[in-house]
Amino acid sequence: EKGRYDHFMRKEISEQPTALAQTIEGRIDASEEGEPIVTDGSEAASRGDSVSTPGADGVSLEEFPPGTFADVSAIQFVACGTSYHAALYGQQLLARRGVSAQTFRAGEYAMSPAPVDDDTLVIGVTQSGETADTLESLRRAAEGGARTLALTNVVGSTAARECDDAMFIRAGPEIGVAATKTFSSQVASLGLLAERLARDVADSESEDSRQLLAELSTLPETVQRVLDETQAMEVVDRYRAMDSYFFIGRGVAHPVAMEGALKFKEITYEHAEGFAAGQLKHGPLALVTPNTPVFAVFTGRHTDKTLSNVREVQARGAPVIGVVSEDNREVIDTVDAALTIPEAHPDVAAVLANVQLQLVAYHVADYLDRPIDKPRNLAKSVTVE
Ligand code: M6R
Q1: Active site: which residues (predicted)?
Q2: How far apart are the CA of 378 and the centre of ligand 1, in A?
Q3: Cβ-based neighbour number of residue 22 at 10 Å
Q4: Is the distance from the beta carbon of residue 178 to the nearest atom of ligand 1 less than 6 Å?
């Protein structure tokens, strides 16, 4: 039921704090209730000792105890659409922990799979667990001897049943064709899974990853703060009748830019594209005019480089909407409009920025009176190749 909302999509955007709380529940070790573990206890840290809190492993995944992935030497992600963007995010989390992974569009992988052996872990990221291309990719990988893992929202789905392992994102049912809360729950799940993989595969743990886990444990409240903002509606009022909409970002902001554009085109029917910010001058810049707003996603990493891309498009007359931390004055003062997010770890900031972009897409589609929950030509689950 939609309750007080006009659309399931809007309801599901609002449900993200609850969905995220379910995703992380019991999966992040905490020193005391509500408090995430930082493994160097403060007293010991002040003495300069390095201490592991007894029993604290950072993540506690019932389905994947420590050592589960000790035999894995290569990781591949296969996914489509929004789930592909979540997988790209997961790949970057792993890379920063010294674990290399590759991400493939499942429609391509199913036709020409990458080489695998029995030390390869192939992770299918699929909300529904029923996407034909993703299932076919997982089957091809299994035929090649790989171990397969389904990261999915649906218990009992084909992917969950067919794969060697499954991790459930626990976002609750998603009705709107546009994936919203499941993207947030996928990336939070990938944050947890990346931690287990990094420790098992590369014996890697770091202050940065502990910080990320700490912030993941409070993500429901942080997302709620973004949802309490009304900036997206104000931005939409200013920039809603334009030729095209571009989305740019670097690092984890790149998959968020692509996801922002996918959501936008899917439900507004307006032309939108997401680019790696550094790619602009290799072609897309030719499209930039005063009638092509550019959404620039900032996470706290690569700020100077993305700002120089912002100036490039502003020089061509394009209005820039920055999605940026509320205390980043330099960016806020440079862009033409800002959608602010709470100060956060860059990998968390990416999730928060995505929530702002979901709201932008929703409000534009609503203004244009589109059938938001069932966009033309699209299905919630794509069960044909
Ligand atoms: O169920 P899946 O995650 O495998 O679905 C993959 C895509 O079809 C899906 O994410 C699609 O791109 C969404 N409609 C985007 O909002």
Answers
A1: 380
A2: 10
A3: 19
A4: yes
Q: In one letter, which amino acid is 121?
A: L
Q: Which residues contact 355 (CB under 8 A, 6 or more apart)?
A: 13, 16, 184, 223, 226, 227, 341
DSSP reduced 3-state for 299: coil
Q: How far is CA 266 from CA 51, 133, 168, in A?
A: 49, 19, 26
Q: How far apart, in whole angstroms, are the C-alpha atoms of residue 78 and residue 81?
A: 11
Closest C-alpha to ligand 1, atom 14: 178
Give pLDDT tens digits for 120-140: 999 999 999 999 999 999 999
Task: Give the nearest ligand 1 atom to 152 CA.
Answer: 3
Q: Please give the Cα distance from 151 to 79 (Å, whole number).
A: 10
Q: What is the ipTM of this complex?
A: 0.98
Per-residue burial over 234-273, b if 16 or more Cβ lie within 10 Å, else e, is: ebbeebbebebbbbbbbbbbbbbbbbbbbbbbbbbebebb
Question: What is the rounded average pLDDT of the residues 34-52?
Answer: 40
Strand order in the sheet with 294-297: 272-276, 245-249, 294-297, 320-325, 337-341
**329 contacts: CB under 8 Å, gap ≥ 6:** none
11 is catalytic: no
Q: Which atom of ligand 1 is nearest to the CA of 81?
A: 12
Q: In what order do the strands lie in the sheet with 120-126?
A: 101-105, 74-79, 120-126, 147-152, 165-168
Mutating to test ligand 1, I would choose from 83, 126, 377 the residue with most ligand atoms within 8 A of its C-beta, which is: 83
Residue 149 pairs with which residues in a beta bridge? 123, 165
Which of 7, 83, 19 has the alpha carbon at shortest distance from 224? 19
Cα maximum dimension of the chain: 62
